[in-house]
Predict the structure.
Amino acid sequence: MIGTRAAIALIAALAVLAAGPAAARGEAGAQAPAAATARAVPGRVTVVLAHPDDELTMAPALAALAREGARVELAYATLGDAGPGVSGLAPGKALGEARYREALCAAAALGAGSVASLDRGDGRLGIAAHQPGSPARALRDDLAAWLGETDLILTWGPDGGYGHADHRMVSAIITEIVQALPAARRARLLYVAIPAGRLPPVPEMAPWATTDPALLTETIAYTPADLEAARAAAMCHATQFDAATRAGMMALLDATMWQGKVHFRPAF
């Protein structure tokens, strides 16, 4: 998500935006529960991502789904054990264990029912992906049966957010699995995305990809309580972000790229 040195820029951006879109949405925010309940609630939602903290890109939507009664399950392709963030920990087992604990904390904050880490090697999913025994092949085998037994799948789009190879590989592998399923077993597959023109005004997010809003035909509205659950989830990821960034991240994303609803593009 937002880079580890983003706190000062983030706080400044929040000050600029305080009287902007978020404040102007006072009534719209109050209407969010009606918008959320107007759509059918899936029974089972499977969120497959590359690393603990990737769920922050859609956190209030996950809280909304759980609140509405969906069974939300989080699956991470890796433990994130190669990304120390601000922790000072060396890459390796201790970092991976810390990040898994953070994932459990975030899942609890969002109301998710289960967390799975498939531990296929942080930063390794794109290495020799076509070869037998590769991390990518192993991840595909891990997910193949699982993804045929759910109602809705949420993941990265083909851009991987900002081009991260693990993010892109997770998106590609899930798409490969789902497109091969017969219609009777094929869950809806949605890619999380940022509408063009709505990138948060912090330099760390300048490289993030955006999507033509015309393609973002699926949204999940959230309430202030869902946004607070998302803020609590962000606070869990202490290895990755300093305290000021964790505290202000969700308000910034709410005021810029979400504005009351998280945006998704259908895969098919």
The beta strands are 44-49, 71-76, 114-117, 152-156, 188-193, 218-221, 261-266. The longest helix spans residues 93-110. The CA atoms of residues 34 and 210 lie 28 Å apart.
